[in-house]
Amino acid sequence: MATTQIHGQIDGPIHDGRLHDVVVIGAGVAGLSAATRLTEAGHDVVVLEARDRVGGRLWTREIDGAMLEIGGQWVSPDQTALIETIDALGLETFARYRDGGNVYIDEAGRRTEFTGEQLPMPAATEAEMERLTVVLDDLAAAMDPDAPWAHPQARELDTVSFADWLEGQSDDELARRHISLFIAEAMLTKPAHAFSALQAVLMAASAGSFSNLVDSEFILDRRVVGGLQRVPLTLAERLGDRVVTGAPVRRIEHDAEGATVVSDRGSVRGRRVLVAMPPNLFSRIDYQPPLPRRQHQLHQHLSLGLVIKVHAVYDRPFWRDKGLSGTAFSPYRLVHEAYDNSNHEDPRGTLVGFVSDEHADAVFALPAEERRRRILASLVDYFGDEAAEPLVYFESDWGSEEWTRGAYAASYDVGGLSRYGADQRTPVGVIHWACSDFAGIGFQHVDGGIRSGWRAAEDIAAALGGR
């Protein structure tokens, strides 16, 4: 087989007449974690990746001399599969900077500096947010995140949008708006009317509770020195020439004995196939014979959200001079949240901010310079005039990335999770599925991708008879 180049496409076709135990499609953390477990168990595995790099939605790049984490980057204490993998690969982590005051801007444009996790709210609204948090925590506690469709109130919660559910729970519009912010804009990156209350409860349950989900001290705890993409890069390096980049898969011809996987680099045979990529891309592959009706329907009810991840690099972290942490929130600003994202032992300061769902739609319709001006204006509102002139400015646009087409992850439309969720991992003959979008614990996070890969590897090893 041709030698793998992790950072560039390999020239020439694949010359491989072997029958592999497993062909893995996708070299993100799910596919590479599964391939690692299967290889360790003695199975013959090949991984085909469409891009000219590994990592999927993890991508650490140097832009104008600055190292930026274009995709996922955070490590939280509950993400034990990710932490186990980081430790096994010999990688180091460092804590996110969080000393000093946070910033909040209200609907009237009033800017408040505060400490702790509680946003500065009127006492009545603060109490209502605490009450709603308890309601969501109780619903999440009753859910097995690996089987949200089995929740005692699954159909009731899944047939109402999260926005409508919140309206039925509280008359306090301000409390509803802020509870919605943490799941809609910050996590699922879709408007709260576009997904169900059950999907929102899964988002909370996947992190252990809604309380964990809204605690930035917890959920955005640490980063990997050198970038989180070092996880898939190191996994791929250890797998060696089992990983082939620049090989988009176009067709899977499958029967009871195995499958032929046809890519732009050639064809590979396998006894089992693992499709490990975002589910919105599943239908880009031609399956022969076609997938069953249930899978066709399931895949049509899943879609990715949309978010712009904004990186602004300055000659120093000037906000720290003002006693600020770099953390800021406002559902009334284009950039709804921002954090100090300075790299380990880098004297420069980096802010990262996020523009989600319909707000992202609106600014993507603008010329690039006007979009930049409006986004930086939000950072100025939070941190002062110095935020207007970064040395490096970059927007992560996963929605236009050919082999992703959105961010952060896929979620179901209203009614889809309870209707189809139980079948999302069901193999179709010799074809199995894995991705962070199908994870329970760690849903839409790297931790969930690793768990999904491990679980698929266990299922495939059992199907292969422990060979």
Automatic annotation (TrEMBL):
Gene3D superfamilies: FAD/NAD(P)-binding domain (3.50.50.60). InterPro entries: Amino_oxidase (IPR002937), FAD/NAD-bd_sf (IPR036188), Flavin_amine_oxidase (IPR001613), Flavin_MAO (IPR050703). This is Putrescine oxidase. The lineage of its organism: Bacteria, Bacillati, Actinomycetota, Actinomycetes, Micrococcales. PANTHER family: AMINE OXIDASE (PTHR43563), AMINE OXIDASE [FLAVIN-CONTAINING] B (PTHR43563:SF1). Belongs to the flavin monoamine oxidase family. Its cofactor is FAD. Keywords: Oxidoreductase. The keyword Oxidoreductase applies.
